[in-house]
Structures are given as C-alpha cells and as structure tokens.
Write a structure and sequence with these properties.
The protein has nine helices and eight strands. By secondary structure, it is of the alpha/beta class. Strands 1-2-3-4-5-6-7-8 form an eight-stranded parallel beta barrel, surrounded by six helices. The protein is globular. The protein binds 2-phosphoglycolic acid. 2-phosphoglycolic acid binds next to strand 8.
Length: 234
C-alpha cells in the first residue's frame, strides 16, 4: 500500500474539486489518497480522499494578516498539511527552522505534516545533495514527534521541470532519509518522492526501495492524469 498525495498549488476551483472527489470516490485502490488544495477549497473530503492544506503559519493566532493557522485548517476539514515545500522555501523564505515550527503546529492540531526536503540545482552541482537532505530532515522535524508524520523528498531542480533523477539517485536519497529518520527514533515514517511524477513513471518510481508513495503536482490536477498514478501500484 502506497501514499499518493496531490498538490494543486495555486490552481483549481471548488467546483473542480467536487468533480475530482466524485471521480476518485469509486477508484478501486487500497492506497491512501490525499489532495492538498488551496485554503479556499479545504473540506472534509470523502471516504476515498483525505484533504490537506499546502502550508500553514508557524504562529498559533494573532496579528499576522493574511496568514492561516493550523487550527483553522484543521477546523476546515484538513487532515494533512504540506510544510517546507520548495516553493514556500523559495518564495516565502521558509527555512528548516520555520518549517519545524510549522510542523509542530500541524501536529499540535491533530493533523499529519508532510515535511518536504530536497536540494536545488546549485546544491546538486556543488555535491551537497546528501548534506542538504540530511540537514533538512534533522532540522525540519520537531524533536518530540509522537504521532504520524510523512516526509517527502523533492529534488527542487526537478519540480515542474519534466526532469527526474535516476532510479539510483532516488534510491540513495531515500535510503539516507530512512536512515536519518531511524536515527531520530522515527523508523517506519513514510517517505514520498515528488517531482515530475506522472502515470508513465509512477509505478517504476514506487518500486524503488524506501519509496512509500509520491507527491504529485501538475499531474494531480486532472482525474485523467491522477487516477492512472493512483492505480499504478497496489
Ligand atoms: P510536479 O510538482 O509534480 O509538477 O513536478 C511536484 C511538487 O511540487 O510537489
């Protein structure tokens, strides 16, 4: 059983989500299916699909105009929240330390954080991939986790670019993440792969060891693209 999570980013509409939920409701799968949608579309999902948010404030409440708290997204029906997505790290200045605070807020409100880590092209070219991944995992996850979390490895240079690392590169990154999580007392934490996943490569990627599922951007927007990913593995 794998975890298939979609990330709609700043796309879609409430009507589009309704249609997607209907389309997914009868898909025959034992996999866990999650859709992380914009705040305005948060809802309770259905028996087949759990809803997640894509970010959350590191603060509990107060004078933070434009921000949305973990309590608010939980109240709206979210079960999961992506934290530390590369676009939030790039455009909003999220550091490992801020991501860690956000993950703590998500956990404190009874939801499951999907903590993203991954290297930029500059870091890859400088030979820093493994160091960036390990520090990302160690520094972005709170020290006192006692309820489930999910980690996502997203090579930042590959997101939305139609590029994917080699199977060996994915295997090395996931082995390091699994080992680091075990060191932190979090053995068994699911680790997703994300970046340019589509129907044509999903099964192969999910057959790599320590890959427990996928985080899908562009190919999660339409049922015709997302369903083949969900059904590509048992
Ligand atoms: P992509 O995005 O599948 O469009 O590359 C992945 C992500 O940003 O989570």
């Amino acid at each position: 059983m794998k975890i298939i999570a979609g990330n709609w980013k700043m796309n879609g509409s409430r009507a589009g989500l309704e249609n997607m939920l209907c389309d997914l409701e009868n898909v025959d799968t034992d996999n866990t299916v999650i859709l992380c949608v914009p705040y305005t579309m948060l809802c309770a999902g259905n028996a087949r699909v759990a809803i997640g948010a894509q970010d959350v404030s590191q603060h509990t409440h107060g004078a933070y105009t434009g921000s949305v708290s973990a309590q608010m997204v939980a109240d709206a029906g979210a079960k999961y929240v992506i934290v530390g997505h590369s676009e939030c790290r790039q455009y909003n200045g999220d550091t490992n330390s801020i991501v860690c605070q956000k993950a703590a807020q998500v956990l404190a409100n009874g939801m499951i954080p999907i903590v993203c880590v991954g290297e930029t092209m500059d870091e890859k070219q400088a030979g820093k991939t493994m160091a960036v991944i390990e520090s990302g995992v160690r520094e972005s996850i709170p020290s006192d986790v006692s309820t489930p979390i999910i980690v996502a490895y997203e090579p930042r240079w590959a997101i939305g670019a139609g590029l994917t690392p080699t199977a060996d590169e994915i295997a090395c990154a996931h082995a390091l993440i699994a080992k680091t999580l075990a060191d932190m007392g979090l053995a068994g934490t699911p680790v997703l792969y994300g970046a340019s996943v589509k129907g044509a490569n999903a099964a192969e990627i999910m057959s790599i060891s320590n890959v427990d599922g996928v985080l899908v951007g562009g190919a999660s927007l339409k049922s015709d693209d997302f369903i083949p990913i969900i059904t590509s593995v048992k």
